[in-house]
Amino acid sequence: MTLDIILPPKCLNCSARVDSAQNICPDCWKKLHFLSGPKCSCCGYPFEIELANDFRDLGENLCAACQKKERAFDRAVSALRYDDDSRKMVIGFKHHDKPEFAGYFTKLMLQAGKELFENADLIMPVPLHKHRQFSRRYNQSALLSRNLAKALSLKHDPKILVRIKNTPPQQGNLKRRAKNVIGAFKVVPERKNDIKNKNILLIDDVYTTGATTENCAKALKKAGAQKVFVLTVYRVVSPYDPN
Ligand SMILES: [Zn+2]
Ligand SMILES: [Zn+2]
């Protein structure tokens, strides 16, 4: 409170004056693209885009990619579309010291993920490899999952799922990166009992190809988890590629 009087709150994104702390200004708000319309009932792919490409299957309510191949996770939801306007915010959050975004993103995730919360038993983040976390100082997904767990009164445990392969984040094309995360995660053997028959809510900042969440979900289910729901701040929306 006192701090607000001394330092007027600034937009998290552009530093313009705003009314309340941990918020963004109306101009930046206009640039956010919410994914609240019709979407694939499994991976959350927004159907506006699919319709344009005539890929929608009205009966199944699944996007073309999910119809072709069953996913290891049960449902994925994202708050915002990842595009040029959102890139700056994500990069600020991910790579620079801007953990204050976490509070704002948590609010958006609480709104977007309502359909996932009721049946979730346990929240955890997509883990970073221990070397990466050291160089970045914090795991942004763990900040989000901790905030969400608190807001939802759910159990948070970031130490059950671990990353055993350190995959460089920006190397290679999307397909190569998708390949790199195969077998990259595992459940700590002594912790298997903690997820047995439990529904897990997995948190990440960006859903890109779905390969990361797919491989986390595989590891969790192999270790006995019942369902895996995925909630991310952003989702990359690229046209369906049947190859
Ligand atoms: Zn702004
Ligand atoms: Zn889908």
Give the helix/strand layout.
Elements: H1 2-6, H2 26-30, H3 47-52, H4 64-68, E1 75-82, H5 84-95, H6 101-112, H7 114-117, E2 122-125, H8 130-136, H9 140-152, E3 155-156, E4 161-163, H10 174-180, E5 185-187, H11 192-195, E6 199-207, H12 211-222, E7 227-236
Parallel strand pairs: 1-7, 2-3, 2-6, 6-7
Antiparallel strand pairs: 4-5
Helix pairs in contact: 6-9
The chain binds zinc ion (ZN) (2 copies).
One zinc ion binds at residues 40, 42-43, 45, 62-63, 65-66.
Describe this entry's structure for a reader.
With 243 residues, the protein is an alpha/beta fold. It has 2 domains: 1-27, no CATH class; 31-236, Rossmann fold (3-Layer(aba) Sandwich). The chain has 12 helices and 7 strands. It has a 5-stranded parallel sheet. A two-stranded antiparallel sheet has the order 4-5. Helix 6 (101-112) crosses helix 9. The longest helix is centred in the middle third of the chain and has 13 residues, at 140-152. The chain is globular. The N and C termini lie far apart (54 Å). The structure holds zinc ion (2 copies).
